[in-house]
UniProtKB/TrEMBL annotation:
Organism: Streptomyces rameus
UniProt keyword Transmembrane, yes or no: yes
Superkingdom of source: Bacteria
Keyword Transmembrane helix included in the entry's annotation: yes
Record-given protein name: Secreted protein
Transmembrane segments: 6-25
Keywords carried by this UniProt record: Membrane, Transmembrane, Transmembrane helix
Residues covered by region (Disordered): 189-226
Length: 226
């Protein structure tokens, strides 16, 4: 084979590789952003805001989360485990009536425990656990973030339980409940069907039942004492 032919083949190969790389980059540019936005929903907007509107930086962070945790397989809970955790959450809600701060702290610990049991990083690695949850439960992961923050700060540390502090605690617990429902569901988080099917699932029914039996203190303020 002549030297000229070898050079020609090398040039052709280089052109093919360059063309493939260009198509790959274009594909990422056209589909990466919309795909991440669909996958992460409100978590996408929150991450963009944290990066001061820098969409590319936010998408790099979200893409890294998918790369690290996208292949995580949630370990299913059996019926007994789901019932145990449901009972414990009910106890948390009941405790809220008399001890809001303690109830929120327990909810934070319970979420971390259930997530770890389902196969996510342990609660002692909160940031990593949160990142993994955001990949598979993006719609509700901010509820965990909120309840963890409030549990650590005591809703500002100086607020009265009869005032704004209780409202913040209540809001945090309600937000955390949505993620808790996801975690004890028999379905995988990111493959769970969303609304618009016209059908009521077993999980939907259980959530309605749970809300109907939730302590009144989670849904309205205590009446003022005379």
């Amino acid at each position: 084979m002549s030297t000229g032919l070898i050079i020609l083949l090398i040039v052709i190969a280089a052109v093919v590789v360059l063309g493939a790389a260009t198509l790959l980059l274009r594909g990422r540019g056209q589909h990466g952003g919309p795909s991440l936005k669909r996958r992460f929903g409100p978590e996408y907007e929150r991450t963009v805001a944290l990066h001061d509107g820098d969409t590319k930086a936010a998408e790099r962070e979200l893409a890294e989360r998918v790369e690290r945790h996208g292949d995580l397989q949630e370990r299913p809970l059996d019926g007994a485990e789901r019932q145990l955790y449901t009972d414990r959450w009910t106890a948390v809600q009941e405790r809220f009536v008399d001890s809001p701060r303690e109830a929120v702290a327990e909810a934070d610990r319970l979420l971390a425990e259930v997530a770890a049991v389902r196969g996510y990083p342990g609660g002692e690695r909160y940031e990593e656990q949160l990142a993994a949850l955001s990949v598979h439960h993006a719609d509700h992961v901010d509820g965990y973030r909120q309840v963890h923050r409030v549990a650590r700060t005591g809703a500002g540390g100086g607020a009265s339980e009869a005032g704004a502090g209780t409202e913040e605690l209540r809001s945090a617990l309600l937000g955390a409940r949505a993620l808790f429902d996801d975690l004890i569901s028999a379905e995988s988080g990111r493959h769970r069907a969303t609304g618009g099917t016209g059908r009521t699932t077993t999980l939907d029914k259980s959530r309605t039942h749970a809300r109907s039996h939730a302590p009144w203190a989670l849904h309205r303020s205590r009446p003022k004492e005379s």
